[in-house]
Amino acid sequence: MSIYTIAEIDLSILKNNMNVISSITHGAKLLNVLKANAYGHGIIEIAKASEKFKVDAIGVATVEEGVKIRKSGIKVPIIVLFQHFKSEAEEVCKYNLTPIISNDECLPYYEKYMERYRGSLKIHVYIKVDTGLNRMGAKPEEVLDLAKKVLSCKNLVLEGINTHFAAADMKDSAGKDFTREQIKTFNEVINNLKSNKIEVNTIHSANSAAILSYEESFFDMVRAGITLYGYPPVNTNADIKPFMEVKSKVVLIKKLKKGESVSYGMTWKADKDTKIALIPIGYADGISRKLSNNWEVKINNKYYPVRGRICMDLTIVEIFKGNVNVEDDVLIFGNDKKLNAETMAKRIETIPHEVLVRIGERVRRVYKD
């Protein structure tokens, strides 16, 4: 909405979070998950910073995301975490992406396009094992045959296998038992491959929650998603912090008389003479309308409540105390004990992931080291 509405991203905290995760996982290789515009943080800049900070691989959800990163000059392996369409196999090969497959449908297409684009080089392929999430992946009993098919292709390398957990962030016994059963099933698949003399370079299963809770899930590499961005899905003492702060500035201050309402629907009326401040950020920028009369902002180290409905382009707060002026900085959420993506998520009954990825494209990303 406004050039003064920004998402300020501190890359030094990203580096710290990466180092903390590497310490927890005893030096296992690190894959930074950068899908959905790096959880709203900006996919290209976070990819460049990740490479600078010596990440081992980058994970994306789509081929399109992978191509975008590769075109920016990134050289580290880019792993496409989700099943792609056969029609996208050409770009996978052309841009040297690493696909994770659930079946053999794309194998002949990789063979065809590798000869065209990569010459004597080979494409590295992962097999996803469905150990219980029942989303993507080959069933455990299908993995051996699929691995043999990959190995039979002259232009392919079976780089590794992976799985994904359904309940690693759950604290109850059912969630813990289910996760341990998934790890057990995954180990059985690994051992079956080994007994058939099939070796792979990289095995990974640990997502953000498992990194913090299941050491037996680390294997060769771990995948850091929401934890990387400062919002661990389980309780931890690890020094991991958010590194994006959404900020704006006061654009207008108005006096309000007792009994007057603000914004659409007259959902809030002043119980005394007061003042309001208008902030140029709204639901078009990713600030949920459910936060109407249900959030605060921070101005000059004081907290002020949101009043009335959040608009497409504006948020209104009551400034009944302190000294607030036009162009004063406003923290919407960030690395703040009270105002952060986790507390915001609880207010609107969702998860921090959704809060972060909702931050719109007109919120300018500003990066600092």
From TrEMBL:
Substrate binds at R135, M312. The active site is at K35 (proton acceptor), Y264 (proton acceptor). InterPro entries: Ala_racemase, Ala_racemase/Decarboxylase_C, Ala_racemase_C, Ala_racemase_N, PLP-binding_barrel. The modification N6-(pyridoxal phosphate)lysine is found at K35. Residues 243-368 form the Alanine racemase C-terminal domain. It catalyses: L-alanine = D-alanine. Its cofactor is pyridoxal 5'-phosphate. It is an enzyme of class 5 (isomerase). PANTHER family: ALANINE RACEMASE, ALANINE RACEMASE, CATABOLIC-RELATED. Catalyzes the interconversion of L-alanine and D-alanine. May also act on other amino acids. This is Alanine racemase. It comes from Brachyspira catarrhinii.
